Amino acid sequence: MLDLFADEEPWQEALADGAVILRRFACAEAGELLTAISAVASVSPFRQMVTPGGYTMSVAMTNCGARGWATDRHGYLYATQDPQTGSPWPAMPALFRAFAVRAALAAGYPDFRPDACLINRYAPATKLSLHQDKDEATLLAPIVSVSLGLPAIFQFGGLRRNDPLKRILLEHGDVVVWGGASRLFYHGIQPLKEGHHPLTDAFRYNLTFRTTGLSE
Ligand code: SIN
Ligand code: FE2
């Protein structure tokens, strides 16, 4: 399919203090990123995690890197092993790391050293409720979030759950980076609308790169 916007130059939009949207920043590498996602998922498959409260999350998740985000009976944690396979999470592909470092730099965060990458897969109607990314042992590093495939509406609020929400359409190739004053801002994804994307069919994929601050 001819994509008239394939060669569109990326641009930036300020989101909040410490937060920026790098529009289309991942477009040029999207195919390679998606191939690497498939490789990770062939080792540590996508699964719907169950929260400590017994709620099955609608988003399907896997991880790569030294640490991976997971749930267990007691809470949320960064584990060195995939609890489903009993093996370490797949290593973070060099392409992932290099991309995340470049995105962080473009957003004003030099020296980003991610050790965890959570991979989310959204099917139609899948959502991610409002939450803070607060399971990391350090809050000095930003979160780098990459959107691939179907568009979604991202909610971005403030430090309190009740703070007003901005609603932002995130499209294929968009990258959101938040750190500094907005590192703990509440955020979420509204239920995905049905659609077809030439690279991901009926899905949206999201990568979030994190520095856990936990030793190996
Ligand atoms: C997340 O908050 O972990 C993911 C956000 C997204 O899917 O864009
Ligand atoms: Fe999050």
Automatic annotation (TrEMBL):
InterPro entries per record: Alkb, AlkB-like, AlkB-like_sf, Oxoglu/Fe-dep_dioxygenase_dom
GO terms for MF: dioxygenase activity
Cofactor(s) the protein needs: Fe(2+)
This protein's record includes keyword Iron: yes
Alphabetized Gene3D superfamilies for the sequence: Alpha-ketoglutarate-dependent dioxygenase AlkB-like (2.60.120.590)
PROSITE patterns per record: FE2OG_OXY (PS51471)
Domain Fe2OG dioxygenase: 113-213
Keywords: Dioxygenase, Iron, Metal-binding, Oxidoreductase
TM region(s), chain numbering: none
Keyword set includes Metal-binding: yes
Pfam families: 2OG-FeII_Oxy_2 (PF13532)
NCBIfam families membership: PRK15401.1 (NF011930)
Name of the protein described by the UniProt record: DNA-N1-methyladenine dioxygenase
Species in which this protein is naturally found: Yokenella regensburgei
